[in-house]
Structure formats: C-alpha cells, structure tokens
Fold this protein.
Amino acid sequence: MTAWTADASPNPLNVEVPNKDQYIHGLLCWGQNPAVGGASCDFERKAMENLEWLVCVDLWETETAAFWKRPGVDPTTINTEVFLLPAAASYEKEGSIVNSGRWSQWRYKAIEPPGVAADDLSIINELGKRLIALYQADTSADWRLRYPLALLWWGPYCDPAGVASGGTAHQDAHGQDGSNYDDGIVDTRTGLLAANPHKVGWEINGYFCPSAGGGSAIGTRVDGFWGSNTATQTLRYDGETSSGNWLYCSHYVNPGDANDQSGYGNRQENRGTVDNSASGIGLYSDWSYAWPLNRRIIYNGASVYQTNHPSVGLPLAPSKWVIAFDSGGTAPRAGGDVSDGFTPPGGSAPRYPFIMQREGHAHLFGPGREDGPFPEHYEPWETVLTSNPLSTGTLTSPTNFGHARPEAYEHPGNGNPDFPIVGTTYRVSEHWQAGQLTRNNPWLCQLQPDVFVELSEELASILGIANGDMCELKTQRTELYGRRMNAVACVTKRFKPYTIDGSTVHHIGAIWHFGYEGHCTGDSANLLTPHIGDANTGIPESKAFICNIRKFDGGSYL
Amino acid sequence: MAKKRMLIDMSKCIACKACQIACQQWHQLPAEDTSFTGSYQNPEDLSVANLTLTRFSEVGNNGDLRWLFFVDRCRHCEDPQCKEACPLNAIKVNKKGMVFIKAKCSPTKKDPTDVVRVDYCSDNDVKPCQLACPFKRSPDPALGIPRYRLNNGDTLPDGRTNKCDFCYDRWTNTALKAPPFAGVFAKSKKSACEIVCPTGAIKTGGNDKMRRKARRRVKYLQANGYPNANVYPAEYQTQVIWVLLDEPSVYGIVGPY
C-alpha cells in the first residue's frame, strides 16, 4: 500500500513504481456494479476509461461492463478492452455464505447454470492457474515480482516434501488429493476445470503440514486456533500448521469429528433444529457453524460474575444463562455456549470479557476512533449550514476519508446558494442494490419502473412541480461532470421542510438503483453523491449532500 | 369440507408487494409495462395480469400523517353476484368457499355455436361479471374486481377475464402435499401470497378461527392507539376479510361493508 499512496516513500522492493495516475491497469469486477453503486458514479465511469482492461463477472451486461457505450460518450475514444464472463447465480453453485450473526451456512446447487455460465470459484481457479503458469514461464521478470506467484502452492495442502522431491502424491491424512482445487475434472458444459468448494473449506480451516515429522500427519485438519508448538489438533506457532483464516479454524474438521453431521467434516452443513441450550435461550448450536469455534454469542464471559466476585462464574441472569461455571468458577456447566472471555480463577492472569479491546470492556464510543474518544456532532461533508449549531468546534469532521483524486469530492462550499436543498439517497424493497438482479426482471420493474425523487408538498409548490413531473437535479458533481440527474417527482406528505437555527431547510430524497442497462432504466442518484468516506470505516457518505431541483425543461431552481 | 377464510391484517403489512409477485408467479401471468406516476402503487390498478394490488394512500398531515396500505383483491363473497351474472356458468364456488373463474371463460376456448358467449361476453366491452361486482372503484363499470384488460388496455392472448381465485388449485393440489414439499414447507398447499408474506399479514384458516383472530387483533389495536381499527367487511359476508387501522372510507374502499 505504501507504494500506491506516496511517491516519495521508501520503496521496500526497490522496483520502479509508475506514476500513481497510471498505476491501475486493469479491474476485475466480480458481481459488482460501481458504475451505478459507487459514490459519484459518473466520476467512476470516467475513471474506467483509463483502464487497459476490465473483466466483469456477472449474470448480465451491467452498467459497469457497458461503461464504454454509455449515453453521451463516443465508444471509439475509449481504448479499454472489456471481458464479460457469464457467472452462475447463487442457486446455481455450491458453497458457503456468512451472515451478520457469524453463521457460515452451506448452500447446495439447485440447478445447472445456463449456457457456459460458471461458478466464481472455477473462474478464479482458472485465472490463478494461468497466472501461475505465466509467471513460471517468464524467467526474465524480476524474481521479486515473479516468485510470489511462480511458487504459489495452488491447492489446499502444502507439501514441501512433495515439491522438493518432485513427488506427485499430495494427499492428506484421509487420502484426499490436496494438490489442486479442481480434482483435474473438466466441466464439459463450460470447458473449465470444475473447482471444488470443499477444498477451499479445508484450506481456510487449516491443517498440519509438518516439515520434520512433528505434529500430526499432513493434511490433518486443525480444530481450534489456540495452541502451542507441540499441539496435535490446534494451530501451532512454529510453522507446522497453516490456516487461511484463524477465525474459521474448526469449521471444516476431520471426518468423524463429534461435532460434525456431514460425515466428512463440513460443520457448515450441520442442520440440527433442536435448541441445545439448557436454559432455553435458543442457541441452536447444531445449525450451521458460527465463527469462532461455533460460539453463538461472542464475549459471553460478560454474562457471568468475574474473578474478583464471590459468585465468580455464576450467571448474572440465572434463568437465561449463556455460560456458567459452578464450584467457585471451576466447573463449566453443561448445556451452555462455548465460553468466551471468562478467566477461571487460579489459572492465568484474569482478563475482562471483551478480549479484543485493550481494556477488556465494551465500547459505545472510546479510544480507537479516528474522530476522537468523545462523541461530537459533525455536519456531513457538505452542509447547508455555515456554523455548527450544536458545538463551537469544527463544522464537519476533519478526519473524513477522502479519495486520492481531490476532484472526486470537490467541495461546493458550505451554505452555497446554488445548492440550498439537503439531499439523501436510499433504496426500495422492489430493487436490490445496483439493480443487476432486479432491473433485469420484468416483474420487479413492473412494481418500481422508474427512478423517482421525493419532495414535500411545500417545496413542490414553491418550484411549481406536480406529482409525476420529470425533474432535474444538480450537485457539485453533476456540474463537474456535465451530467445532471433526471427523476420523476413523488410529491409526498412524508417529506417536510424543517427549521434549523431559525431557517427553513428543504429536503429531498432519491433512489439510486437505476442505470442505463437492463429492462428498466434511469439515472442513478449516485450521480449526485460525493466521493467521501466515513472517518472510521471509509463507507461512502451517500446519505447527505447539498443539491438543487427543478421541473425538467422550463422550471427554475430554488 | 369446511370453508376457508383469508385474513389480511393491514396493521402488519409493510407494502413490499411480495404478494403481487407471488400471485403472478403461481398464475403464470406476464409483467405489465408500467411507469412511476407519483405513487409507490404500481401497477396503477388491478388488471387481468395483477389479481392483487397494494394500494397506497397518505392520510392526515404533519404529526397526524399516516401512510395507509390496502391489499386489494376479490373478497370471495359468500353469495357472489358475478357467479349469478356469468352467462357461461364459468364462475364456480368450491366447498371451501373459494370463488374462481374457470378456463372456459376464455373466448379462445369458446364453442363457435355458443351464441350466448358471443352475445354477452366476447362482444361486450364490460363483462357481466364486472357489472355485477359490488366493489367497483369508480363510475366505470369495467372497474369491478374481475378484469380482462391490462392497465394499458390490452388483453391477454386467451382473452379471459380473471380475478383472485384464492389459489384454490394449490389447496387441492396433491403434488404440493407430497415430498419434497410436504413437511418441508408445511404451508405450501396454501395460497401463494400467504407463503411469501414476510410479516405474516396474510393468514388463511378455518372460517370461524380467522374471524376470531381478526376480532382479537382489532381489540388489541383499539386498545393500543388505533381506536377506529375494524374488521372489514363488517357485515357483508366474504371469505376474505381485512383488519383495517381506520374506517374503510379512509382507505378509499367502496362497496358494501
């Protein structure tokens, strides 16, 4: 990352780094549609014109895949080579999906994909293998660039002995081939090697790869992440084990594991529908796998009395206990969750339950936030205000995450009279994100066929806009890139002008699912949004900006 | 066979329109070409391809504003006037009380010697069943619940008139009671809209049970901030009933109640 962001920084590889403006040659776009979903999306579309190549892996030709022929541009002036690879939909492939409750659940293939559409994994497998072959063949390249790929082990099980001796047997302790991700079987429908998602599961879980006969046999899967350098089941810190992600150690264990229902170790396929919690709180720990260690409630050590309390280990709420330790905090009670963050007395030094925080306590706000340890109200990056009415301090956050190209978030000036209206963007239930999956479905287009902008009856009255009128919206971005947004007016009682510091402020909202491809088309509201990110997460600040609106063709702006 | 009743609880509806799509899927109906006309309500009205429709209305203002949703469809009258009016005897009421229009309504399946059909249905712009329906929304008699046109005025290739049929063919479909559906999807023999409703606003069940459930819900709503909550229709006997948050007239509902 250093080489990307600062030309003057020391270059650890001592390799010539091109000017950062030309640094990104190509883009792999996997089921994403930044030409609609990206903040300041017209800027992103223009930026793609600098690419030498673009690979889109998707179910349809998206706005991103078609950026070179979008309305208003001359395709002959764009030199980007675009590849559109047909992808399998989620129900046309096997694999895992993780939810925000940390469950990793296995999905099965319901139907074959149409035509030559392939699952992501097989496409990645093919790409990886060909890149490795290219780097292995090109002996003229700088070894520091070449070796990381030329020597990459492309399969779940490392086997240093096999590589060194030119051996071919890379089987794990259960006789399964770990030398590749695809079993060497070509899918005759696609012509691609058929990748096996289970092998990715083995690699992410982790396994033993002893270099000198220590530990367990090659390929024996680990079932946890805390270990010593003599452990035979869990990750070791002496290099005898490997894991794609320590949080997932134990999600794909050895066949015969007591916690596995699949018979071959894939705990993500567990489908136990009985609540196994003794207190009846609904843990359902035998349904799928929850990282880490199938723990359903993280930091559950906070539900029991701590070491310095006479009732150490007993639950604070006895009728709905999550974990419990009887006999003075030494005997774990059966029927609870996997314990997290409780230190039994007498052993190692006690810690507070929130083990990933330095102080061991939960935070609502505190150390580690970019914008300070104390809560403060900041206006959005763009605001109709010129001073902060809630604080004598700064108007907007000084730590917002800016784009590398300042023109992507050029500021119109707070309180700019050209943009006196507060704008926001949102979604509707009829469309999904950037619209590939829903704007290609005539039935869903029927329900929500056009992009619309909602405004109050009061603002509509001032501007002479009637319900259903076509409107034109502008922000600093549309004036910079020359493309204003059109949307149908939805005049509604649900929007109201509000009073801030004695002044009336109008507020409008538009949906952003739309683009120039698909069954129903329209302008994305991301034509309006600034390319600025939240200070802590970098998530685009697309929910608030300043703008203006008028009736399209003849109306005047506020 | 005991009668079945459908309860649509508008206090639980989030207006996601999933019922509209599920209905079109099960009945294999085409999507209509629509445009946004200033309301989330789309298509604009019921049609031969949209047998159920979520109607949106904004009532009140400022602190008193309510965004009301009404999932409109055939009421499945206990004494259906459309059935009486149909010259072809194409409208049937089954033992569960479900009122549906049979395929023989389609002019493409007509008997060329069937003078009655030619006279009363195919050549008439307004069908007898539409005229007879007591739930016409406007002075236009074609806007009874049964429809044979799309919103743009076109008709479907088979030219038939259609309306909500309670998914009677799911309730009696033996395939949906067999594996892999039986047990896995216990509700799969019920109406398509009920299965997809994410909030449980649409429920079906025994005649009396559903009526009791509706009354209980209204009692709860009346005690919790909705003094005008009511069961619709209150007296007119139908197999589909609604829980409304306010009087039917506030929703713009016309016809007997």
Remarks:
- Chain A is about 15% helix and 15% strand.
- The CA atoms of residues 442 and 519 of chain A lie 6 Å apart.
- The radius of gyration of chain A is 28 Å.
- Residues 120-137 of chain A form the longest helix (18 residues).
